Here is the input.
Amino acid sequence: MKKVTWDVQYTSVPPVIKYCKKCSKKMEFVCSNKFRVNAERKYLDIWLIYKCSECNTTWNMTIYSRINPSSISKAMLEGFHSNSKELAEKYARNIDVIGKNGVEVGIPDYKIVGQNIDFKEKVELHINTICASKIKIGTIIRQKLEISQSVFEKLISNGSIKGLREEDLKKSKLEKENILIIDICL
Ligand SMILES: [Zn+2]
Here is the structure.
């Protein structure tokens, strides 16, 4: 069986999905890569600032709330003050922090890197990425193979595409490692 590997590379951090008062509906809020640091007496509050993709309304995601300044390193504090991109991306990808703020994680921009499948032989397809996301496996496959949703569903129902763990490929989301068997008899 031929082994093919695709690498899903994120080209942005995920947006968050939350209600925007100005737009009056749930919107994507995009990370601004900027922090807001508020030092009050003995306490420190740190937020990461997001902006509504439609109207630019800002929303502050709590990173630290009322912490003792000595509990974080000087280098890290400097990173917050200087809007370190690396630090912003780290928190924008932190599912726990996003969850604690009561908002949903959106889908980041991404590209799929890897060789095409020619359907002449059975293929063990490995789809890898640096961290799990809400992108559906089905979307990755449809985009890379350039097939429609109905064709994709047909290939699943007749067993031409299946997950190694027998997962439901119509619903399953991208994990760090995903293995599929593709066997299309033309
Ligand atoms: Zn808005």
Q: What stands out?
A: The CA atoms of residues 15 and 30 lie 5 Å apart. Strands lie at 2-10, 16-20, 25-40, 43-52, 58-67, 104-105, 110-114, 123-129, 161-163, 177-182. The pocket of zinc ion is lined by residues 20, 22-23, 27, 52, 54-55, 57 (CB under 6 Å). Residues 137-145 form the longest helix (9 residues).
